[in-house]
Design brief:
This protein is mainly alpha-helical. The protein is 77% helix and 0% strand. The protein is built from six helices and no strands. The longest helix has 32 residues.
């Protein structure tokens, strides 16, 4: 999930990639290994995206936007709900009775969060923040995604500075686990 451009373009591109993964999940045969592989891909994409937003986007929202505290807190609450669903899915296999139900809940939560960001937060950021700052944030978000965890860690901190200190270490451990297990290929 690495693109170019400012933070708004970067995050919007991520949103499209996640939507595409959900569509591919729907087309895969219920109970199939493809569904597990797609949920793993969704988990990797969503966790990296959320970590980057938590490290860079939401602090900028708090700093630059009126009502930034409330906007960031609302987004962090949505991230928490998504991360808990991802953790539940991590323990499930595609043949489990509640696997598909959990994916539907995940998609509902992610879709609502994305819609809120794209209708409210990102346009306000685009209008209220200098383009240079948005470009710089885009670079920081791309870098954060490269070192971010690939698995949900609901107990990990979601605000700076603790999240910036812990995420690269968690990311390294997750990537080693992914290589050993073959996850994400």
């Amino acid at each position: 999930m690495a693109h170019d451009g400012d933070v708004v373009a970067e995050l919007t591109d991520d949103h499209r990639e996640v939507a595409d993964l959900f569509q591919r999940f729907e087309k895969a045969m219920p109970g199939s290994p493809d569904r597990k592989r797609l949920v793993d891909a969704l988990t990797i994409a969503l966790v990296r995206h959320e970590v980057a937003e938590e490290q860079h986007l939401y602090p900028a929202v708090r700093e630059h936007l009126a009502e930034g505290e409330a906007l960031a807190d609302k987004a962090l609450a949505a991230h928490r709900r998504v991360e808990l669903l991802l953790k539940e899915l991590e323990r499930r296999e595609p043949a489990d009775l509640d696997f598909d139900r959990l994916v539907v809940k995940l998609r509902t939560e992610v879709t609502a969060h994305v819609a809120d960001e794209e209708r409210q937060l990102l346009p306000r950021l685009r209008d209220g923040v200098h383009p240079y700052v948005l470009e710089n944030l885009g670079k920081k978000v791309r870098e954060a995604k490269r070192t971010a965890p690939t698995r949900p860690h609901p107990a990990a901190p979601s605000t700076p500075p603790a999240n910036k200190l812990l995420a690269p270490g968690l990311g390294l451990v997750d990537r080693v686990r992914d290589v050993v297990s073959g996850r994400g290929r």
